[in-house]
Structure formats: C-alpha cells, structure tokens
Design goal:
about 475 residues, alpha+beta, Creatine Amidinohydrolase, 3-stranded antiparallel β-sheet, globular
Length: about 475
C-alpha cells in the first residue's frame, strides 16, 4: 500500500476527469477452487487497488462526483471470523488509511445505487469479468448478467486508462522490484536446467523463487520445448538435448506489480549453428526495438521496424526472398511472428486489458490493422514518458500454418517453402524484456538484464 495521500490524489484526479455522476468500483471476492471453503489465492481487482489500496475481499467503493463524496462498502468481521482469522481492523479504520471517511455495510451498496438510479442519476460502471460481480450488477441494474457490460461507461474507462497508463515514481519502484524477482526466477532456470529433468521440475523451482520473494506468478508459467505453440502450459515432458525451451514467466510482488520476461534456452547448454542463426536475429530485434522506443514514436512503428529487421535476417539465411519492404507491407512477417511486439504492464501483466484492449493499447482514431501479427498488437500507441511496456519479438516455425499458406500459394514470391520444410521440428524463439519510456528514450526495468546473447546464455548455463 502506498501513502494515504497517493490514493487521495489519484481519486481527486479521476473525479476531475469525468463529467459527473457516480463512479462504481467493485473489489473482488474469494473464488472457490473445488469447494466453497477451498479458494484460489485471493487477487484484488487492480482498478480498486489503484484508487482505494485495500487488498481484501468483500469490498466496493463509490465516488459521488456531484456531491464530492467517497464511500467504501464492506462488512466488519464477527466472532466466527475472529476464531478462524484472528482480530481484524474495522472497515472504518481500513478506509481511513486510504483517506476515505465514510463506510457502510456491503448490503448498503445495492440500496445506494438503486436509489441513485431511481433519481435518474448517472452510474459509471466498468466492465466486469468475475461471475459474482456480474450477478451483483445485474441485480442492481435490473438486467441479465450477460447484458451488464453493455452499459459500461466509456468516459469512465478512458479516464482510468489515461491516468493508469502513465506510471508514477512509486509504481516504477515497485515494477523494478518485480523485475528483480523475475530476474531471479529466470536465472534459476538458466542455472538449474539439465537434460532429463521434467519441465515441471524447472517450473516448480522458478515458481518457488516467486512465492518465497513475492506474492505469486503474474500469469501461468509458459515453459515448453514446443515454442512454436505460443502459450503452451503443459509441463510434462523430459528436457531433451538439442531442443529449445521457451520460458515466458513473470513475478507478482506483494503490492501486485508485475514483471514479464521471456528467454529461450538450449537444452544441454549449447546452441547449434542453425539455432544460433535464428536466435541472433531475435535477440538483435529485441535490442533494436529498445533502442528505437522513445517518446513521440508509436509502438506500432517499433513493431514494424523490428519485423523488418527479422525479415531481413530470415532472408539472409534463405527462408525469405524478394523485396523486404514489399513483404512487410503485405504481412509476410505474420508467418513467423503472429503476435505483437508487446503490451502495457503494471498492476496487471497485461495492464488494464479487462477494461478493453483497444482502449488501453490504441490512441483515439488509431485503428487496429487486421493482419496476422499486427492484428494481435496489444500496444500501438504513441509512446510518452511513463509508459511501461514489454519488448518481445519472436520467430516461430508453425508447421500447420506453413502448410496452410503453402496450400493457398500465399506469398510464394517471398517465402521459401522448400527451405522451411527442414524447420518443422525447430520450435520457436521469443525474447522479452520490460521497458520504461523515459524523457529521452527508454530503460530496461530491474537492476540487471537477463543474459540474452548467445554467448551470455551459454555462459550462464555453464555455471
């Protein structure tokens, strides 16, 4: 939790940017895993955390812009709770810690909002992603749960996005800490990886580092020797010499700020010559994108420039042919990198995407380009100081996609399909760092950069 003044200032700024009405913030509740008393680890809603800072279930809040009031709704514990949990601070005491003076039992929320609606007042609601909150809002609004998000407030969403996209110094400190922990988890994998061990053993060691030093992983760990599958969460295979292992994993610390790194490691500790060639293309693109990222340029421009560099590299090894600029314009790069260069990151590993990906990643008037790869670019905005984003180029050889495009005779003037046949067993490579846009360019977050060149990775694994 930050200082009380931080939360007061955030709410004041938000209220000043919305025209009027009542802003509604729903916190999260505990969620059952396999029976009611056995719950998943609790994770508070990030927007609630950002403005109200209270990291406990069963809370909601409102900001009444017209009346200048702020209220937190929640229930004090009773003796049954105390038996299991021990004494707890009252809701009033918790609210006071974040600068809110009015509190009410949680049941009063529905009454308060229903009365406001009856008076014709405007409720500004955010998209809901938890079933219990969808049901709650459906009861209040008098609609079906599936219809709740039809009434989301675009004005409210845009005001939050504009504020949260630019990270405060206190947030950057936390993200640096999360990246330091992310470094530790990935470096653990580099030094522990041995042929014959199960992928899950490596996952367990990495996640143990996070749980010991933080709160939880910032998303389910991706660790796979089939890197051509972008999000492969199965970890049941033995590590096999000659394979490339893509590890995409992040740490979430107690304040809930995140890191998100990816490294691709050669099982056995050494890259072969073909792996070195493709790996070097990707690592060069990663560093090139960071050098290019600066205020005033759009991240879509950085994405395209990194893709052009990788197409040229693939041409140099005989997998791509023809004019590189023409190939880029047509979208040939989507064959090899069917995802975007990066996304926003902060309290969420994909920051604020619960509010709507296009609100977060695209400037007003900036449209998403419907092309494989570009269509999945989650961050295309013009960069400004305070943006925290990922830089994650990759090259993948996806046999099913190659076969489909080949059968359709797609881009045969640019893709050497005959040469690609020998890469069907290659897998994929992704390399990801987290960067902060500064006044003059960008810097990588965390105290140290994970080994990334061929030489650095092999040296780390040799230890």
């Amino acid at each position: 939790m930050f200082t009380k003044e931080t939360y007061i200032s955030r709410r004041k700024k938000l209220a000043a940017s919305v025209s009027g009405g009542i802003l509604v913030f729903l916190g999260n509740n505990e969620s059952p895993s396999n029976y009611p008393d056995n719950t998943y680890i609790f994770r508070q809603d990030s927007t609630f955390l950002y403005y109200f800072g209270l990291d406990k279930p069963g809370l909601a809040a409102v900001i009444d812009i017209d009346c200048g009031g702020e209220m937190i709704f929640g229930d004090d514990v009773d003796i049954d709770d105390i038996i299991w949990m021990g004494p707890q601070k009252s809701i009033a005491d918790q609210a006071a810690e974040v600068g809110v003076g009015k509190t009410y039992p949680f049941a009063r929320l529905s009454t308060f909002l229903a009365e406001a609606l009856a008076k014709g007042r405007k409720l500004h609601c955010l998209p809901q992603y938890r079933a219990d909150n969808l049901i709650l809002m459906a009861d209040i609004l008098g609609c079906k749960p599936a219809e709740v998000n039809d009434g989301k407030s675009e004005e409210f969403i845009k005001a939050i996005v504009a504020q949260r996209l630019i990270k405060e110094p206190c947030e950057i400190e936390e993200i640096d800490r999360a990246c330091d922990l992310g470094y530790a988890m990935h470096y653990t994998a580099m030094t522990l990886m041995q042929p014959g061990m199960l992928e899950q053993e490596l996952v367990g060691a990495m996640e143990g580092v996070v749980i010991s030093g933080g709160y939880m992983t910032s998303f389910p760990t991706i660790l796979s020797q089939h890197g051509e599958t972008l999000h492969n969460h199965m970890h049941d295979k033995p590590l096999t010499v000659g394979k490339l292992c893509v590890i995409d994993a992040g740490a979430e610390i107690a304040s809930h700020y995140c890191s998100d790194f990816t490294r691709t490691l050669p099982v056995g500790g050494k890259f072969d010559s073909r792996q070195k060639d493709i790996y070097t293309i990707v690592s060069t693109a990663n560093s090139f994108a960071a050098e290019m990222a600066r205020p005033g340029i759009t991240y879509r421009e950085v994405h395209l420039a990194a893709c052009r560099l990788m197409l040229q590299g693939l041409k140099n090894v005989g997998l791509v042919k023809g004019d590189i600029d023409e190939a880029l314009a047509l979208g040939v790069q989507g064959m090899f990198m069917p995802h975007g260069l990066g996304h926003n990151m902060g309290l969420d590993v994909h920051d604020m995407e619960n509010l709507g990906e296009d609100y977060v990643g695209y400037d007003p008037g900036q449209e998403r380009i419907r092309q494989l790869g570009l269509g999945s670019l989650r961050m295309a905005r013009k960069l400004v100081p305070g943006h925290v984003i990922t830089d994650e180029p990759g090259i993948y050889f996806i046999p099913a996609l190659i076969e489909q495009w080949k059968a359709e005779d797609r881009f045969s003037d640019f893709i050497n399909y005959a040469a690609l046949e020998s890469y069907y067993d290659f897998g994929g490579i992704r390399l990801e760092d987290d960067i902060l846009i500064t006044e003059s360019g960008c810097r990588r977050l965390g105290q140290k950069r994970l080994p990334i060149t061929v030489e650095e990775v092999e040296a780390a694994m040799a230890r």
